[in-house]
Amino acid sequence: MAKNWAARSALTLLTALAVGVASAGVAHAADITIRTESGNNVTATGEFVDDGDSFLLWDDYADGYAPTLELQEIYGGGWKTIESITNRNGAKNNPVGFEYNISNSVYRMKLCAASCVFSGSFGE
Question: What is the pLDDT of residues 35-84, one digit of tens each?
Fold first, then answer.
């Protein structure tokens, strides 16, 4: 009986710890901005605007790269791209964007120009 109680207690503790660790790195949705850089130049900017669940992408530097912004969702222990957009407007022109309803899942943004950067994880 004591062994059974100890095993249940240990399982409950491990479950609580796993849930706490899984959720500790996830920020609640708020405006998020990420940038790629080359030397001292910002080459691309990706932004999530919480009010309206909008994603915007700017090409900030005439370097021959058309930047891409991906919205990724955690899926099966990895990340799955659920929306993607490329800015082919040329440097310093209008941003391109999309809207995606952020739910109770875990998301991140991936921004690529000459190199790639990731936002931290976020969700509602």
Answer: 999 888 899 999 999 999 999 999 998 888 899 999 999 999 999 999 99
What is residue 31's three-state secondary structure?
coil
β partners of residue 48: 32, 55
Rg of the Cα atoms in the chain: 19
Asked whether the whole model's pTM tops 0.90, one would answer no
Dihedral (Cα; 109, 116, 57, 34), 10-degree rounding: 60
Instruction: Show Cβ contacts of residue 112 under 8 Å, excluding neighbours closer than 6 positions.
Output: 36, 44, 67, 68, 70
Is the CATH number 3.30.460 carried by domain 27-123? Answer: no
Q: Which residue has the tokens 């082919």?
A: 88
99-101-102-104 Cα dihedral, nearest 10 degrees: -170
Please report, for the chain, the start and end positions of each structural domain, with discontinuous segments joined by +.
Answer: 27-123
Does residue 117 sit in helix, strand or coil? Answer: strand
DSSP tag of 105: S
